[in-house]
Amino acid sequence: MELRQLKTFQVVGRLLSFNRAAEHLNYAQSTVSAQIKLLEEEFAVPLFDRLGKKVVLTGAGDLLMQYAEKLLTMEDETRTQVSGWEEPQGILTLRVPQSIGIRLMPAVLREFHKVYPRIGFSINSCAFDSLKQEFRAGVTDLAFLIAEYVTASELIVETLGFLQIVAVCSPSHPASTKKTFALHDFQDETLLLPKHDCSYKMEFEKELIENKIRPAAKIEMNSVEMLRQCVIAGIGITIIPEIMVREETASGRLQVIPWPETPLEKAVMMIHHKDKWISPSLQAFMEAVRTGIQPVLNT
Fold first, then answer.
1. Is 180 left (phi over 0), alpha (psi -120 to 50) or beta?
2. Is the pLDDT of residue 277 over 90?
3. Which residue of 75, 166, 192, 267 sits 20 to 30 Å from the alpha carbon of 45, by its own alpha carbon?
4. Same fold, 3-66 and 162-266
5. pTM
6. What's the whole-number average pLDDT of the chain?
7. Beta bridge partner(s), residue 241
């Protein structure tokens, strides 16, 4: 496996076209095809499904794309360091909960991009279950979690601050009229929950199961934004970081349900592997996060 083969694979994977990749690289199409064939023979798996004139990444191809991004970024960083050019560049791969991504990350990225326009990002949703494996493999550079704690000796965990988790519903929902709301009041209610917004959702579901509380229905959504709009529409109740519904509760479109009696807080954590090389790009971004997010969380 050679870096030039990975570069060709990366371009084909992004453009999903051998012809367009050849034009982009200024190669003959036969050269592109030959390099991809060599990779497929080396790994003994197809990297693309050929559907007529169209191509799509296979599962193995999608996985190789993640590794190719990291290897080629490392090549760029190596050239930068060895040649003495100190401007950070490359691609950073992040895992970010949607709540943080929607409410906190845009301002950080805006300010960061002004200073470091040559740094790109690949940002995916929170996925704690696979995080350790991704860190070991080097696929993920940096992750953010909303959790009570993280215990893993191979991970470096930095707490940035805390988010309050609240239960909310539409003002038209019957739960909005209750002065007190206990855990058992979730019985027979329709719950709207995020699929991928970190561990607070899993902890809540565990508490319901342990107390034998059965909602009437549970609706899970990949999109926290869609979930929020469905709660505004009066479909059911959700638990969500307060920062995600601050504007809606202030305007009266949503109402906080008085549960639990004491505020439920979860830490916002920035995490990387203890053996991870902190490149200039990553170091600069971590500092930007501290500068941009910590003050917001701790006010």
1. beta
2. no
3. 75
4. no
5. 0.73
6. 87
7. 165
